Amino acid sequence: MPLKLSSAQLVADANSKIRTLTIEQARQLLGDESVQFVDIRDIRERLRSGTIPGAFHAPRGMLEFWIDPGSPYFKPVFGEKKLFHFFCQSAWRSALATETVQRMGLEQVAHIEGGFSAWEASGGETEAVGQ
User: Fold this and answer.
1) CATH of the domain at 79
2) How many domains does the chain have?
3) For residues 84 and 44, what is the distance between their CA atoms, to the nearest angstrom?
4) For residue 78, what are the domain limits?
5) What local confidence, expressed as pLDDT, does residue 130 receive?
6) Distance separating alpha carbons of residues 61 and 82, to the nearest angstrom
7) Domain Rhodanese: where (predicted)?
């Protein structure tokens, strides 16, 4: 049975509705107290290649529950008055995640163009992730 929408179409639609930071814009925000980078990649990806320094890990599968203050899984970091910048490996999952949390009401959100792979390729600072 053919799909009604491809994953590429879903990502393109999400990108038309959200704010995207260039790698340079994101790198300039590193260390800014008003910004929280959020790594939505799987733990295996993080262990393999590290992460952006100071990034909060929110696995994609739990993101909606961790953001919702009415959920028993709510994480207080998402109640802070910060700008949340999501990233994954290639900026596909983060586009979908950013659109979803924006629809949920988290307004100060964006994602990083090209994801962590583009961050690394640009020479962006990284840190190792312990087990």
Assistant:
1) 3.40.250.10
2) 1
3) 22
4) 15-121
5) 79
6) 22
7) 31-128
Which residues are 57's β-sheet partners?
A: 39
Consecutive 10-residue runs of the chain (131 residues): their mean pLDDT? 91 97 96 97 95 97 96 97 97 98 95 97 93 62
Query: Residue 44 falls within a domain, yes or no?
Result: yes
pLDDT of residue 131: 62
Evaluate whether residue 9 is within a structural domain: no
In a domain, 99, yes or no: yes
Three-state secondary-structure class, residue 37: strand
CA torsion 89→4→61→86, rounded to 10°? 40
- N-terminal to C-terminal alpha carbon distance within the chain: 41
d(CA 39, CA 127): 12
φ/ψ bin of 61: left (φ > 0), alpha (ψ from -120 to 50), beta (otherwise): alpha
pTM of the shown model: 0.94
Task: Sort 50 into a burial class: Cβ within 10 Å, 0-12 / 13-18 / 19+.
Answer: middle
Q: Does residue 130 sit within a domain?
A: no
What tokens were used for 30?
Answer: 């590193």
